[in-house]
Design a protein that fits this description.
By secondary structure, the chain is an alpha+beta fold. It has two domains: 44 residues; 88 residues, no CATH class. It has two helices and ten strands. A hairpin with a 2-residue loop joins strand 7 and strand 8. The longest helix has 38 residues.
Length: 155
């Protein structure tokens, strides 16, 4: 027979206390996971942000005369051309006024960029000291200059 204390079974009160401890630990773990995901999302948004000075535009004739063969990549209905460096792209969730989710690509040292979307072509000439990020917002290419990639840079 279980010992009783104040009309309650001691084993029952111990089990209910254990249950509350498990619930509290579960809530704490879920909160930690949520906060980690929220911080990761904020870091990702900052990494792919379109903050920065605009890329200098380039005339089509000058782009066509540029040295080297353009590397062409099609992504999310747009065509991206670059002559030097590397490229990586992602699809970002829509921000207010952006028209929904949009593609954004980053170029490490593009020299010249050509972007075609919706039958419209845009050309840019980022200076040699910069990398560039290009997004397609509301059917138009938007290019911004960003600092060059460094091996010790944190994403």
């Amino acid at each position: 027979m279980a010992r009783q204390r104040g009309g309650r079974n001691i084993l029952d009160s111990g089990m209910s206390l254990g249950g509350w401890v498990v619930i509290a630990a579960s809530v704490g773990i879920c909160a930690a996971i949520y906060l980690a995901q929220k911080n990761a999302s904020a870091d990702e948004a900052a990494f792919w942000s379109l903050r920065g000075p605009p890329c200098p535009p380039l005339e089509e004739t000058r782009y066509q005369r540029a040295w080297g063969t353009a590397q062409v990549t099609r992504y999310e209905g747009a065509s991206f051309e670059y002559r030097v460096g590397h490229m990586m792209c992602t699809r970002r969730p829509g921000e207010p006024g952006s028209g929904g989710p949009y593609p954004v690509c980053q170029f490490t040292g593009p020299v010249f960029l050509g972007v075609e979307t919706g039958g419209r072509r845009s050309y840019f000439a980022p200076p040699s000291r910069y990398a560039a990020r290009v997004a397609i917002l509301n059917g138009q290419a938007r290019c911004v200059l960003i600092p060059r990639f460094k091996m010790n840079a944190r994403r």
